[in-house]
Design a protein that fits this description.
By secondary structure, the protein is α+β, with helices and mostly antiparallel strands. Residues about 170-195 have low confidence and may be disordered. The chain has helices at about 45-50, 75-85, 105-125, 140-160, 250-265, 285-295, and strands spanning about 15-20, 30, 40-45, 60-65, 70-75, 95-100, 130, 215-220, 225-230, 235, 240-245, 265-270, 275, 280, 300-305. It folds into two domains: about 15-170, no CATH class; about 195-305, no CATH class. Helix 3 (about 105-125) packs across helix 4.
Length: about 300
C-alpha cells in the first residue's frame, strides 16, 4: 500500500533552475544534486520544445495546468502532446510540467501517475481531471524507488512553479461568507460547495433561471446534451443523452458513473443512449462532455445558446 504525504517536511536542499540556449526563457529545467529527477516547465505554447529535449524522450510524467490539473504519463511525449492539442483534455492549458529520470520505466510511471493523481485530488489545491487510477503492484526494489521519487517530487515541482501540492495556494473561503450576511451561492470556491468530481443532485435552487447563467448545447451526431453554467457551478440538464454501453466509452470511470446513474434511476433507456431524467451538477463543461460522450472532448465542443 502506497502512503504518500506531499506535505511532509523535507531536509533543506539546493535547487538548480536553469534555462537552455536557443529555447525561450520561459522554458526552465529544475534539478537538485540529491536526486535523479529532472523537471521541465514551459508555457503550453512551448510544450513541444520540452518534448524535443533528450531528457524527456523516454518514460515521463507530465502535469497540465490551467483552471484544472491533468496528470498523465507517456513513453512518447511529443506524440502525447500532439494528441492533447487535437483533443484538449480540459478547457484551457496554461503551463506544462514534465518529470523524467533515468530510472523511470513503464511500471514506475504508471504507479506515479496514479499516486500523484490521488494525492492531488486529496490536496484540493486545484480540481483534477482524469480517471481514478489504481497503482499497480510493484516488486520491492521498484516500490522503494517510486516512494523515493514521491518524497522528492513536491519540492521540485514547487521550485518549477507547479503549486499542485502546496496548501498555501488552495482556494480560501471568503470570510464574509462565514458571517450572518446573505451568501452569494454563485461564488462558492472549489472545495466549498462546487462539485469537484462525480455529480450532485443538489445545487442553488434558482441557478437555472438566474440572469447570469449561460446555457450550452452539445451535438455530436445523434448525441445531444444541454448544460447550464454559472460561476463554479455546471449543471448537466435533464433530457441530455449519454452513451449507454460500456463498449462506447474509452474511460472506465465514465462507464461506471453512467452505470451508477442507472442504478439510482436517473438514466432511462433511450435506444443506443441513456436519457438523463434529472438535472445534476458536474465539475465542468469538459467533465459533462466526457459523461455524455464517454471520451475526452474540449469545452469548446459545447455551443452557447
Amino acid at each position: 500500500m502506497h502512503i504518500f504525504d506531499p506535505t511532509a517536511p523535507m531536509a533543506p536542499t539546493t535547487m538548480h533552475v536553469r534555462t537552455v540556449a536557443d529555447l525561450p526563457a520561459s522554458v526552465r529545467f529544475v534539478t537538485t544534486p540529491t536526486s535523479t529527477l529532472t523537471i521541465g516547465a514551459a508555457p503550453w505554447r512551448h510544450a513541444r520544445r520540452l518534448a524535443q529535449m533528450p531528457v524527456f524522450s523516454g518514460p515521463c510524467i507530465y502535469v497540465l495546468a490551467g483552471d484544472e490539473i491533468r496528470i498523465g504519463k507517456s513513453t512518447g511525449l511529443a506524440a502525447r502532446l500532439r494528441d492533447h492539442r487535437r483533443t484538449m483534455p480540459m478547457p484551457r492549458i496554461d503551463q506544462t510540467f514534465v518529470v523524467a529520470s533515468p530510472g523511470f520505466g513503464a511500471d514506475a510511471i504508471t504507479a506515479l501517475e496514479a499516486i500523484l493523481t490521488q494525492a492531488a485530488r486529496k490536496a484540493g489545491v486545484m480540481p483534477v481531471v482524469g480517471a481514478l487510477l489504481k497503482p499497480p503492484s510493484l516488486d520491492s526494489i521498484r516500490d522503494h524507488d517510486v516512494m523515493h521519487w514521491l518524497r522528492e517530487l513536491p519540492f521540485l515541482l514547487l521550485a518549477s512553479g507547479c503549486t499542485l501540492f502546496d496548501p498555501d495556494f488552495a482556494p480560501q473561503i471568503d470570510r464574509a461568507m462565514e458571517s450572518d450576511a446573505p451568501r452569494d451561492e454563485y461564488r462558492v470556491p472549489i472545495g466549498s460547495g462546487a462539485v469537484r468530481e462525480g455529480w450532485r443532485r443538489d445545487f442553488p435552487a434558482d441557478l437555472l433561471d438566474h440572469p447570469a447563467t449561460r446555457h450550452f448545447v452539445l451535438e455530436r451526431g445523434a448525441l445531444q446534451a444541454r448544460a447550464s453554467v454559472n460561476g463554479q457551478w455546471t449543471v448537466l440538464r435533464a433530457g441530455s443523452l449519454l452513451t449507454a454501453s460500456p463498449e462506447t466509452s474509452e474511460q472506465v470511470c465514465i462507464a461506471r458513473k453512467r452505470k451508477r446513474l442507472r442504478e439510482l434511476g436517473l438514466l432511462d433507456p433511450a435506444g443506443v443512449f441513456g436519457r438523463l431524467n434529472r438535472d445534476i451538477a458536474v465539475p465542468s463543461l469538459t467533465n459533462g462532455g466526457r459523461l455524455a460522450s464517454g471520451t475526452n472532448i474540449p469545452a469548446s465542443a459545447w455551443r452557447a445558446l
